[in-house]
Amino acid sequence: MESDREHDLDGLTWQEFEELLRDILDQHNFEVKFRKVFKHGGRGYQIDVVGYRKDLCLCIDGKKYGRSRYRTSSLKTEATKHYNRCLAHEDAFNIRSIPVIVSWIDDNLGFENGCIFVPVAMLNDFLLNLDAILDESGF
């Protein structure tokens, strides 16, 4: 059964979904850079939401994919791309950059291809317990 939150998110465009992620990080006292564009190694990159707090940098890629049967495979492919973007970000700005993919639907991925997967319904809990989660997962 679909939760009320999932139903509410159904009507959001992918741009509004990214804005929601930005707003949630802002509510958790992160300094937020939205749709951050940068160059490194002669190549251009964009990260949907970058959140800074103390010496921590979360690089978030928002994925509002539908319920297709190929969604999980697509997310894993995107994880590899996002991980590489985060490595470039880390190198370009000399800050530890944690790759996070926030998905609209819970795909039970957890960790995949160097990225932490967080369903949007769990993002608040993830941010509240961030230090413990990063310690447990070796980030």
How would you describe what is shown here?
The protein has 139 residues and is α/β, with parallel strands linked by helices. It is built from 5 helices and 6 strands. It has helices spanning 4-10, 14-27, 71-93, 123-128, 130-137; strands at residues 31-40, 43-53, 56-63, 97-103, 111-112, 115-119. The chain has a 6-stranded mixed beta sheet, with helices on both faces. The radius of gyration is 14 Å and the shape is globular. The termini are far apart. The model is unreliable at 1-7 (pLDDT under 50).
Keywords:
139 residues; Trna Endonuclease, Chain: A, domain 1; alpha/beta
Brief overview:
With 139 residues, the protein is an alpha/beta fold.
List the helices and strands and how they pair.
Elements: H1 4-10, H2 14-27, E1 31-40, E2 43-53, E3 56-63, H3 71-93, E4 97-103, E5 111-112, E6 115-119, H4 123-128, H5 130-137
Parallel strand pairs: 3-4, 4-6
Antiparallel strand pairs: 1-2, 2-3, 5-6
